[in-house]
Structure formats: structure tokens, C-alpha cells
Amino acid sequence: MTAPKYAHDTENGRYYSDPAGGPDLVSVTNVLDTSVNKRALMPWAVKVTVEWILDNRMQVARRAITDRTQLTKEIKQLHRDARDTAANLGDRIHKAAEQRVLGAPIPDDPQVAPYLAQFDRWISLWGVDFAGDVFATEITVMHRRLGYAGTADLMIWLPTGPNRRRELWLIDYKTSATRSAKSVYPENTQQLAALRYAETVLLPDGTDAPMPKIQRAGVLNLRAKSHALVEMPANRDAHRAFRGALANAQWHHAAPSTYPALLAPGEPAAKPRRTIRKAA
């Protein structure tokens, strides 16, 4: 996953540093990964693993007898490798879209090219003028009072109002090699609502500016052969739902990982185990 300027990884996932000097802020995606997405990822991980086993059933049958331990290790790693590969491609597509908006050079990447072509097609169909229509790209937003931060992929004016009046959209890019371009997840709404109702945006020099009034929000699904902008109801109800997920994530991140055992009356405490270091 690409790292925005003020983001950093911790043992509890991604957090943002506050350039104003306040406490670190948990990232929006970290909140959803902790409270929502892990449940959704389990069926996908099972699917990836089962498909690989079925596609390689003869090898699996043979190695189950001759190399069971290593085979088990490799099978357990399958979904992690698939996740990391997809995430890496998604990061490269996000970066290419950002570079296109900024008018910056884009490295030649055959895997990214079809998705970028769909992004270009979307821009062309809507008649977007980067200089006049793009409000911000890859901009960090913060809600210090609630303790979270995130990065908005795109804030853009689109002619979607009455009489083609321009409205300010908050858009998040989503990529997939298998899902339909019209497919979204419910938690996408919470993600967009969290960004929409942040208090401030961070300018490139680290100073604050008020969060602009977002009128509509949606997911821009980019696929190799298609694309779709799907509007999401990222309203106050969705923000309240996100705040529940936020409280849950903050509790989990602060909770101890171990607790002392309760001894029965008169039961002696276990002696600490001695650790003997071998000489180097």
C-alpha cells in the first residue's frame, strides 16, 4: 500500500502523524480493516486457497505424502501472496491516476496500462479539465476531535446537478481483476463518509484548511476492460456507523494482548522460566 506523506505503519496498522503536534490519528482504512474488512476477506481467502488446490490437485496429492509440512506452509501463504499482489497493482494504478491528474510522467507498466486507459476514458467522457475541475488529488484529511485521518483519492467538480450545475464530488478509486465494475462493498460508504465529514484538509506545506463541502460521493471502479462511477450514500448515517467502527478499532488497538491468570487460594505462583542464551 502506498504511504501518504504523514502516514506510518505501527503494530496496530496504519496511523497518521499530526503536523500540528497532536496525537497520532488512526487511518480510515485501518479502522475498517480492524472492524469490518477482516470478516469479508475470509471467504475470499478460502476461495483463493481452494481454487489453487483444485488446479494443482495432483501435485497436492503427491506432496501430501512426501512433503506435507512444507506444502501446508505454502498453502497457508497463498491468500497472503494473492492479497499482496493485488494490493501492489492497486497502488500502482492509484499512482498512475494521480500522475495523470497532475500532468506528471507515468512509468511504462503493461499491467497498469489497461486500467489507466479506462481512467482516461472516464475523464474524456465527462469532459474533465484538470486545471478547472480538479479540486484536489491524494489529499490528507483529518478529524482530530474523533482521532482519525485518511487520504482522499480525488475531489472533482462534475456537471451532475440540475441543469448540469457543477457539484463537488469525493471519489475513491477501487481496482479489481475479477469483480464487476458496478460492484461495491457496504463499507465503501463508511470510508467515503469518514473522509467527507473530516474537519480539515492538510495542504502540501502541512498547514490546515477547512474541509470543503462535499455534495456527492462515489467509487470509481477501474477494471482492465471497463469502468463505472458508482454513487454511494455517504451521509451522516454512514458516518455514525463509521464512528461505531472507529470506537471498536480504538478499543482493540489499546487493549492488552495478555492478562494475568487468577490463582486459587494458596496456589503458588509459577516460577519464571529461565532463558539460557547460547554463546555466539
Question: What's the layout of helices and strands?
Answer:
Elements: E1 7-10, E2 13-16, E3 25-27, H1 28-55, H2 57-66, H3 68-102, H4 113-125, H5 130-133, E4 134-143, E5 148-158, E6 167-175, H6 186-196, E7 200-202, E8 208-210, E9 216-222, E10 227-231, H7 236-254
Parallel strand pairs: 3-5, 6-9
Antiparallel strand pairs: 1-2, 2-3, 4-5, 4-7, 5-6, 7-8, 9-10
Helix pairs in contact: 1-3, 1-6, 1-7, 2-3, 3-4, 6-7
Task: Give an account of the 3D structure.
The protein is α+β, with helices and mostly antiparallel strands and 280 residues long. It is built from seven helices and ten strands. Strands 1, 2, 3, 4, 5, 6, 7, 8, 9 and 10 form a ten-stranded mixed β-sheet that branches. A hairpin with a 5-residue loop joins β7 and β8. α1 crosses α3, α1 packs antiparallel against α6 and α6 crosses α7. The longest helix has 35 residues. The radius of gyration is 23 Å and the shape is globular. The two termini are 38 Å apart.
Short précis:
This protein has 280 residues and is α+β, with helices and mostly antiparallel strands. It has seven helices and ten strands. Strands 1, 2, 3, 4, 5, 6, 7, 8, 9 and 10 form a ten-stranded mixed beta sheet that branches.
* Average pLDDT rating: 92
Q: How many separate helices?
A: 7
Strand content: 15-25%
* Poorly predicted runs: none
Rounded to an integer, what's the Rg over CA atoms? 23 Å
Order of helices and strands: EEEHHHHHEEEHEEEEH
In whole angstroms, the N-to-C terminal distance is 38 Å
Q: Helix share of residues?
A: 40-55%
Query: In total, how many beta strands?
Result: 10
* Cα shape: globular
Structural class: alpha+beta
Largest sheet: 10 strands, mixed
